[in-house]
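Trying the structure run again after the queue cleared.
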Amino acid sequence: MASRCVLAIFVLIAAIVPMTTLATEYIVGDESGWTLGFDYHAWAAGKNFLVGDELVFKYPVGAHNVFKVNGTEFQNCIIPPADRALTSGDDTIVLASPGKKWYICGVGKHCEFGQKLAITVQSLAPTPSPAPSPLYAKPDEAVKGKRPFFTLRWW
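Done. Tokens:
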């Protein structure tokens, strides 16, 4: 009886406590940071960016900035108004929604020289619920006409 209670408590806790996914923090450019002369396309290749992950842009204050832009602005290096710039030198952007995301540096011709990043953010996949075990199936729910050897019931 005690083992049944322990098992019941374990099953209840497992059902109530949701599985959580820890967000990944990506330092853009790794140890090079956000700078000129770095291949951000190659850096992003093979990475699986998910909703909730964070991009951290590290650079010397005043040397660079970060703008979140649309695809046209990215492609043509169109610099948005200065009040949209991130300028702290340690800017964190939480990837809040799935889809294509674009970032550029708006200092001088840095964007034209390749200081820009395009990524695709995936949504979190739903966790599939486990299929019920035939051991716990009621006789009328048994697999294709086969009855289980025994049925455990918690009630």
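The chain has three helices and seven strands. Worth checking whether this holds up in the mutant runs.
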